[in-house]
Amino acid sequence: MRIFKSRTVRAVTAALAVGMIATGCASERGKDGAGDGKDGAKDTFVFAGAGDPSSLDPALASDGETFRVTRQAFEALLEHESGGSKLVGGLAETWESNAAGTVWTFNLRKGVKFHDGESLNAEAVCANYDHWFNWTGTYQSSAVSYYWQTIMGGFAKNEDKDAPKANYKSCTAKDENTAVIEVHEASAQLPGGFSLQALAIHSPKALKEYQKQAATGSDDAITYPKYSQEPGTVSGTGPYKITGWNKGNKEVTLQRFDDYWGDKAKIKNLVFRTIDTEEGRRQALQAGDIDGYDLVSPADVKTLEGEGFQVPTRDVFNIFYLGMTQEKNPALKKPEVRQAIAHAIDRENIVKTQLPEGGKVATQFMPDTVDGWSDKVKTYGFDTAKAKQLLKDAGESGLKVEFCYPTEVTRPYMPAPQDIFELMKADLEKAGIQVTPKPMKWAPDYLDATESGSCALHMLGWTGDFNDGYNFIGTWFAGYDKQWGFKESAVFDAVTGASKETDPAKRVEAYKAANEKIMDYLPGLPISSSPPAIAFGKNVNPMNVSPLTQENFAEVSFK
Q1: What is the mean pLDDT of the chain?
Q2: 11-30: buried (b, 16+ CB within 10 Å) or exposed (e) per residue?
Q3: Taking each helix axis from N to C terminus, what angle separates 335-344 and 417-430, rounded to the nearest 10 degrees?
C-alpha cells in the first residue's frame, strides 16, 4: 500500500494541538454514547493515525490511512490471518481455481448482511466487479483506480492509450452463493488481489447510488464523488459501520454493527483521529486523550515502554524509495544522472538517524523478507565525488530538479518525511544538484501528483498487500507507469515474465533476475526497509499487529 514543519516548530505546535485535542475530547466523550457505557465500562476506542483518509470508498484509494479506516467496515472475498500474511477466507468461505489460474470460484458465506440490510450473494459480488470494470472518465485515472488497474488491468473500454490491457473477463453468479470470476491470463496478483481493500464488496443498493455520481478532474486536481466524502451511502459487511467524518476535527467515527456475521466487535465505538506529528500522537497517548496510535517515532519506543505503555513492533514488510519521473525532467532519462543521484544519497545515514532499530538499507525494490530478493543486484554506494563525475559525464553540471515531499503525514516506511527530505536535499546539493522543494499535503494532493507523474523526484514507499514478489516489483515495473515515466521493455518483460511462471520455485528465480534487471536500469533508488511500531494504552488489550498493517480493530478490548 502506498504514501513538515521543522522539529522546533513541530514540538510547539504539537503541544498546542494536544491541548486542543484534550479539550475537544472531554466534551465529545460525554455525548451520544461516545463515552463510558451505562455500566461504567469504557465503550469508545480512539486511535490516532498520521494522515487523513482520502475516501470512504476503498476502491478509489491506494493509501494505508484510508484502508485502516475502511478495513473495519468493508470485507473482501479473501482476507489474511490475524497478525500474519497467510490467505484465509473472507466473504468467501472457500475458493479454488482451475489449473490454468484463469477461473476462480468462490463459495460465499451464508447469512451475511450489509450495513444497509441488503444480503450478500453471488450477484452482489459480480455487481461490484462489473462496476469497477465499467468505470469511465476520471475513474480510469491511475490516481483513482490504481488497485483495479494493478490487479485486473484496464476497463471494458479503455479511454487512455497508456491504460493496461484488461485482464478481467467476467463474473458469473453460478448460484446464490457461488461466484465465478474469470480472467484472460493467469497472474501472480491472484489470488492475493482478491484480499485487497480496494476490491472489498459493497452493497448493491449502495453501488446504484455510486453510479449516479462521478469523479472529475485529472492528474493532481481530482475531485472525488460526494458519496465517498461523507457517510450515509457507503455500505459494507464489516464489524463496524461508518457513521461520521468530521473533517474539521480530522475524525472518522464508526459504530459496532450488531448484525455482523462473525465475532462481534468488543468495543461499541471506534474513532480514528488524525494527529500529523509524532510528538502530538505520543503526547496525546500519554495524556490519555487517545488509546493508541501508529508510527511511533524510533526515539519514543523505550520511553513509552518505560512508562508502562505497550509498543509492539510489526515484522519488516515494506520498502521506502526515491522515485524519479523521467517524463517530468528529461535529464532523468540519462542513466548517468540516475546513477549520480543514487551515489549522492547517504542511505546509511538515513537508516541510522531516522529509522527504528531493525531498519536496513535497501538494495532493491522489495525487502529481503520476500522470496525473490536477490543478493546479486548492482549496488550504488554513497560516493559524492562519483556522483559529481557522473553528472559531468552526462553534461548535466548545474542540474536543477524539483523534489516533491509529503506534509501532514508519517508512513510505516517513512517516519519523518521532512527530516528525511532535508537529508536527501543536502546530499544532492553536495553533489551539485540544485533542489527545488515542493511540499504537498499527503491526501489527496501528494498521492494524486505522484501517481500522475507530476513530480520529478519524490519519496514514496510500499507495505506489501500480500506475500508475493510481484506485489512489490509488479506494482511499478510490469509496464508503463506515469509515476516513473519510462518505457523500457527489458524491465517490463522481466517482471511480467516472472509473474506468469506457474512453477513456484522457478517464479522466485525469475523474480531475482527481474530485480537484477531493474537495478541495472535504476528507475529510482530503493532507500530502506523498517519494522514500524504501534502503541497502545496501559489499559488496552491490543489486537494482533500485522506485518501488512492490516489490523482488525474488532479484536481490541479494554482491560
Answers
A1: 91
A2: eeebeebbeebeeebeebbe
A3: 120
How far apart (Å, rounded) are the C-alpha atoms in residues 105 and 121? 13
| Grid-cell match 486511535, residue found | 47
- Name the pLDDT band for 281 (thresholds 50, 70, 90): very high
Cell of 120: 450478500
Secondary structure string (H, E, C) spanning 294-340? ECCCHHHHHHHHHCCCECCECCCCEEEEEEECCCCCHHHHCHHHHHH
Over the stretch 323-357, which tens digit does the pLDDT of each residue have? Answer: 999 999 999 999 999 999 999 999 999 999 999 88
353 CB neighbour count, 10 Å cutoff: 13
Residue 104 cell numbers, joined: 476462480
Q: What is the DSSP letter of 46?
A: E
Grid cell in block for residue 142: 491511475
Stretch (H or E) spanning 507: helix 504-521
Judge if pTM exceeds 0.85: no
- What does the pLDDT look like over 229-272, one tens digit per residue? 999 999 999 999 999 999 999 999 999 999 999 999 999 999 99
Q: Which DSSP string do the residues of 137-158 spell out, in sequence order?
A: GGGGSTTTSHHHHHHH-S-SS-
Residue 540 contacts residue 559 (beta carbons within 8 Å): yes
Domains, the chain, ordered by start: 7-73+238-297+534-558 (3.40.190.10), 82-203 (3.90.76.10), 318-529 (3.10.105.10)
In 50-177 the beta strands, taken as DSSP E runs, fall at 78-80, 87-89, 92-97, 103-108, 168-175
Q: Are strands 434-441 and 216-218 parallel, antiparallel or unpaired?
A: unpaired
- Please answer whether residues 415 and 278 qualify as being in contact, where contact means their C-beta atoms are separated by less than 8 angstroms: yes
How many CB atoms neighbour CB 165 within 10 A? 10
Q: What angle do CA 91, 93, 94 make, to 5 degrees?
A: 125
In tens, the pLDDT along 430-462 reads 999 999 999 999 878 898 899 899 999 999 999
Cell of 244: 461520521
